[in-house]
Amino acid sequence: MIDGKDIKKTKPEQIESAETYNEVELVLSDPKKITRIRSQMSLEDETMTIDFLRKNSYMFAWSPSDFQGIDPEVIVHRLNVDPQARPIKQKKRAFGVERNQVIEEEVSKLLKAGYVSEIQYTSWLSNMVIIPKASGKWRMCTDFTNLNKACPKDPYHLPRIDLLVDSIGGCALFMMDAYQSYHQIFMAEEDMDKTSFITEKGVYCYNVMPFGLKNAGAPYQRLVNRMFKKLIGSTMEVYDDDMLVKSRKERDHLQDLGKAFSIMRTFGMKLNLTKCTFGVRGGKFLGYLVSERRIEANSEKIEAIMQIPSPKTIKDVQKLTGKIASLNRFIARSADRNLPFFKILRQVKNFEWSEECEKALKELKVYLATPPLLANPMVGETLYVYLAVSIKCSKLGLGER
């Protein structure tokens, strides 16, 4: 039975859509362990959903002690270090009292979790980097700059974001995130010492794959592609540690989710409950706002362009074109509109922000003030081919009248 006290309506910030959600206690003995489900469900569907999630509560992790990691027989992360590369030991950096305290607290957590071990001898040595968060807290990272330079890039590709986003329109969705995803993969024993880092209290190395390594994304994508190969493209989509289960028919959603959970249970993967939302019809996925039939541009990305000042250097133009590239799908005649910016990038010397560029930037901002919505076509709907041609470029599109 579902007690009404177990359910609280909310509209979480990370799910930007018109829907509202119920917060549900997943573990009745611990009110902090909650998950989110769509509030517009029928009472029967809501009851079945909550029962399903509570029966599968072991699929979620709240601390590193809640999971064992992926079996090393399945995958470990090996560093492909160029044999010609000379090992580099970075000189220890000096930090203030506050930052040193943050480092020691974070390292203590890593030691307790079993993510790192103290080490005596090492050929490679990196420093820690402390980055301030918007919340006022600190984020600790490892500066693997030298090690990354010595490792050729892994060519394993990530899925195309636009295709993933297009495929989920009109589906019931379960958006989920692996708990400390990269840390669920162990480092190969012979490469652990290469991940060594230094603090005031000692030298440590990672036992698990750390964030910040050049090729960390590739083995993780290999893992999830291997795990969910029978489901990807039909009832699942996976991009790095962003995963979702999708169902065309809402009545099939628990069954589809059960298949995904079964695979994760086999491989020992755990989910981060705080980043999971169940049974939604839309939300924020890979930088897009996806609803039942529409794909909207991320308002944060639009605002970043709206607030950008006129570039004064080549680097400023590169930043501008990078921001524009993330919104290309929503900009009609994007190549034509942005041609003045790319002309400047061809002229590395004698930088000049011309009147043509300033006009193009102003027009782009006006256009993005009311960006178009992309819609998934309905089955049997008549579509038209549109061809746009200018002196400088041409573009073809498929859409409604």
Describe the structure.
This is Polyprotein P3. Residues 131-288 form the Reverse transcriptase domain. Pfam families: RVT_1 (PF00078). This protein is of the alpha+beta class. The chain has 2 domains: 1-296, HIV Type 1 Reverse Transcriptase, subunit A, domain 1 (HIV Type 1 Reverse Transcriptase, Chain A, domain 1), CATH 3.10.10; 298-376. It is 28% helix and 23% strand. A hairpin with a 4-residue loop joins β21 and β22. The longest helix has 17 residues, at 97-113. The radius of gyration is 24 Å and the shape is globular.
CATH class of the largest domain: Alpha Beta
Strand content is: 15-25%
Spans where pLDDT lies below 50 across 5 or more residues: 1-18
What's the CATH architecture name of the largest domain? Roll
Order of strands across the biggest sheet? 1-2-3-16-9-14-13
SSE blueprint:
Blueprint: E1 7-10, E2 21-27, E3 30-38, H1 43-55, E4 60-61, E5 76-77, H2 97-113, E6 116-118, E7 128-132, E8 138-142, H3 145-149, H4 161-166, E9 172-177, E10 186-187, E11 197-199, E12 202-206, H5 217-227, E13 236-239, E14 242-247, H6 253-267, E15 271-272, E16 277-280, E17 283-285, E18 288-290, E19 294-296, H7 299-306, H8 314-325, H9 334-346, H10 355-368, E20 374-375, E21 384-389, E22 394-399
Parallel strand pairs: 3-16, 4-15, 5-10
Antiparallel strand pairs: 1-2, 2-3, 6-12, 7-8, 9-14, 9-16, 11-12, 13-14, 17-18, 18-19, 19-20, 21-22
Helix pairs in contact: 8-9, 9-10
Organism: Sesamum radiatum
Protein name: Polyprotein P3
Domain Reverse transcriptase: 131-288
